[in-house]
Design goal:
The complex is a heterodimer of chains A (359) and B (292). With 359 residues, chain A is α/β, with parallel strands linked by helices. Chain A has 15 helices and twelve strands. In chain A, the strands form three sheets. Chain A has an eight-stranded mixed β-sheet with strand order 1-2-6-3-7-8-11-12, sandwiched between helices. Chain B is mainly α and 292 residues long. Classes of the chains: A alpha/beta (359), B mainly alpha (292).
Chain lengths: 359, 292
């Protein structure tokens, strides 16, 4: 390999021009919006809001049972409706599903003592009960995303009569698989001390997630933006993603530390030692049909952490599927977009006519 | 449609510009080396030192779990933005009080940060060595250093860096260090807060401890209220209009439900007291669990 001074200067000039162009596009894209699907708030409690998405005019014939999406506490749910092209919510609406979504809001100082039982029993439970009453039905379909997947598993185990079908996306179950770097880092954290320090800022969560793969996540992706497709639309999508990645909400101190201690440190879900509000969470009680979708290249929830679900649930109708993408790629990659909505819709349709689980 | 970014301090173009600047620094290093080998094979081993140095500096300024928590407690030299909150009295406040001695904590934190720096150095060195080894093994782009060639070098560099990083940060020693950093910086933050509380008390202002005690009281009261059967019955029949709207408008659901959302849910989109009472009776007949 050789390069003359003139050639090297040419490379820098070329790249310099690309940087300037990309920067200009990034600046133009600062005003981008997210969450294009129309929705209305139908229930609120504390910081939690339950949204119902309005049906699309061009949607297919509606389904019988509504679908409630429970997202993680550690990120914002608008990733599911980032823009029309990358919107799981929109695909579900187009298929005629009635879609509800929980937005946990931002925990503030008054929420320091809010615990996991509050989030799962009172907030998620409140949303479920609202929907059941509003539709006059006995059971709904539940979809849990990432940490929200853990919540939906817990809720279904505790209230099996209220859930007809369960869909989980990148949901960890075994928190101590060998590949789980986050778990290794969190094992030695003094959770009592951390809880006393108060709510955990979202920025700290962002930093932790980024530090799992710092060069790819904090350097390489920007360089790729320089060299890849950088038309206005692609840059806008990039900016939306960036905003989402850096937009983690603050975490209620007690709930956050309970999650670390009970799940990452003590792995209670698979050891069968998790209790919420004095009630034992037994995954074996989940006999509902389950569709478990996880990412084969996930650096936050390793595939083995999610695939373990099949060993612990009591369902005889359990379908697991690894999608060849990463954690965030599940919602925004072409692969995820091409596979995930279709799988969820057809899986739910196959089970729509069936009755809910036996009580 | 919403724009959740309006108030966000994050500026993607600034982050991008920072990454581009570091990318250019790397390219300069690659380019200089390539130029030095013009007419012959470049000696990449001489570039390893420069790469490792650049890399180590970047690592030192980047967040890792322990470092994040240390920064969050206000003890990062870089003054990272992810703070639990500003420490009101600065370092001078970290003295006296109960619990661990803040100065001892500070010393321990400095020692831990020194150990962390040692790991960054190890990762940087290992990355550079890997990079050079792979280049020698045929990973280097052949021919003139074009934009594409430079990018290939960059991709190889990132791959080597990520591998070296992963190998170190998965070790028990590193994980233990991370946890110690996090725990020590949290302990230091709490020590400072104790000091701030002491001052607040002296000035007759409410303290963090008192606010926490009040929150606990409110929570206990809520739990007690929810546990009372009479309260449940009253809520089921919609007999608490002051706290619970009889029916919420779906379009304007701003009204705060009562303490237990389960009961709030009963006062749903299309309920009336009569209807709710009938539903409750129906549920009771079916032996359905009370919604708590």
């Amino acid at each position: 390999m050789s390069a003359t001074g003139g050639e090297a200067a040419g490379i820098f000039l070329d790249l310099g021009a690309r940087v300037a162009e990309t920067l200009a596009r990034l600046r133009e894209a600062r005003g981008v919006t997210v969450g294009g699907s129309a929705r209305r708030a139908v229930w609120r409690h504390g910081k939690t809001t339950l949204y119902r998405y309005l049906p699309l005019e061009q949607a297919e014939r509606g389904a019988e049972r509504p679908l409630l999406i429970c997202f993680a506490l550690v990120n914002r749910p608008y990733i599911l409706d980032l823009e029309p092209e990358f919107s799981l919510v929109r695909r579900l609406l187009e298929a005629g599903l009635t879609v509800y979504l929980i937005d946990w809001g931002d925990a503030d100082d008054g929420d320091r003592l809010r615990d996991l039982n509050d989030y799962i029993e009172s907030e998620l439970g409140g949303c479920v009960r609202h929907i059941l009453d509003a539709h006059g039905i006995e059971a709904l379909d539940l979809m849990g995303v990432c940490q929200g997947g853990v919540f939906t598993l817990c809720y279904t185990a505790l209230h099996p009569q209220q859930v007809a079908n369960l869909v989980t996306l990148t949901a960890p179950v075994d928190f101590q698989t060998p590949e789980d770097l986050l778990s290794k880092w969190l094992r030695g954290i003094d959770t009592e001390l951390l809880a006393r320090a108060g709510n955990v800022p979202g920025e700290m969560l962002n930093a932790i997630f980024l530090s799992l793969m710092p060069f790819r996540l904090m350097q390489q992706k920007y360089v790729r933006l320089l060299t890849g497709r950088s038309d206005r639309r692609a840059v806008e999508t990039f900016v939306r993603m960036e905003r989402w990645i850096f937009d983690s909400p603050p975490q209620a101190a007690v709930a956050f530390t309970e999650f670390i201690r009970w799940l990452y440190q003590e792995n209670r879900l698979v050891r069968g030692t998790l209790s919420l509000g004095g009630r034992h969470v037994d995954l074996g009680r989940i006999r509902q049909p389950i569709l478990n979708l996880y990412a084969a290249g996930d650096h936050i929830v390793p595939p083995a952490a999610s695939a373990a679900m099949g060993r612990y649930v009591g369902s005889s109708d359990y379908t697991a599927c690894a999608i060849e993408t990463g954690h965030i790629g599940m919602y925004v990659s072409r692969k995820g977009r091409a596979e995930i909505p279709g799988r969820i819709i057809s899986w739910l349709r196959e089970r729509q006519g069936r009755r809910g689980p036996a009580r | 449609m919403q724009n959740p970014f309006a108030a966000s301090p994050l500026s993607p173009d600034a982050v991008f510009a920072g990454a581009a600047e570091r990318f250019f620094e790397l390219l300069k290093t690659f380019g200089l080396q390539a130029a030095s080998g013009a007419g012959g094979a470049p000696e990449w081993s001489s570039v390893a030192g420069a790469l490792a140095q650049q890399f180590e500096q970047w690592l030192g300024a980047s967040p890792a779990l322990g470092a994040s928590l240390a920064a969050s407690a206000g003890f990062s030299p870089a003054g990272a933005p992810w703070a639990f909150g500003q420490v009101p009295l600065g370092m001078a406040a970290a003295s006296g009080g109960e619990g661990e001695n803040p100065w001892e904590l500070l010393v321990r934190l400095a020692q831990l940060q020194g150990q962390l720096a040692g790991h960054w150095s190890e990762i940087a060195k290992s990355s550079a060595e890997k990079f050079v080894t792979r280049l020698r093994a045929g990973g280097a782009p052949v021919g003139e250093l074009t934009s594409e060639g430079a990018l290939k070098l960059y991709e190889l560099w990132v791959e080597c860096a990520e591998e070296a990083y992963a190998r170190t940060v998965r070790t028990e020693e590193f994980c233990h260090l991370q946890a110690q950093l996090a725990n020590t910086s949290t302990a230091l933050l709490l020590a400072q807060r104790r000091q701030a509380d002491a001052l607040a008390r002296a000035w007759g202002l409410p303290t963090r401890e008192e606010a926490d005690a009040l929150q606990r009281q409110i929570r206990e009261l809520r739990d007690e209220l929810a546990a009372k059967p009479a309260a449940k019955g009253a809520a089921k029949s919609g007999a608490k209009p002051a706290a619970q709207p009889a029916a919420k408008s779906a379009a304007a659901p701003a009204a705060e439900p009562p303490a237990r959302p389960a009961r709030a849910a009963r006062a749903g989109e299309r309920s009336s007291p009569k209807r709710r009472a009938a539903k409750s009776a129906k549920r009771a007949r079916r032996g359905r669990r009370p919604r708590a």
